[in-house]
Prior knowledge:
5 strands; single chain; two-stranded parallel ribbon; 181 residues
Amino acid sequence: xxxxxxxxxxxxxxxxxxxxxxxxxxxxxxxxxxxxxxxxxxxxxxxxxxxxxxxxxxxxxxxxxxxxxxxxxxxxxxxxxxxxxxxxxxxxxxxxxxxxxxxxxxxxxxxxxxxxxxxxxxxxxxxxxxxxxxxxxxxxxxxxxxxxxxxxxxxxxxxxxxxxxxxxxxxxxxxxxxxxx
Length: 181
């Protein structure tokens, strides 16, 4: 098996990457819990909440489009769409004569639920960031959007045949261990 190890980049970059990984490791479980809590308080699962938000944010789309937005398999997105249909959060419409193509569209009930969830989250984020300086509050969304965009682009390249990290991309050499005396 070939060695896919790259030489280490700048040690400061790896230290920063380590800090980022640790921070995300603490942040993401809390965000997932909060998402689940907010969605459940409005009668939805966390996955249904994410799907509903994607449809509200990006507009009507096919199940394949929803799967792409949520990084899910089509079958999983289809089950999510059907569960939202049962809850009257979305409706299906056919755009033309091909009955196999179905567009998912948010209903008025879906929009109301989405607004309530979003308002709950916005209130919480306002409270959480109230003690931050205006500069930090302004920088947070930009940094997170850039990180999300970079990660999404990497995953998309992996889906298009270019290896993503889990598909055998070359790995960095491990950080040298500090010698204990």
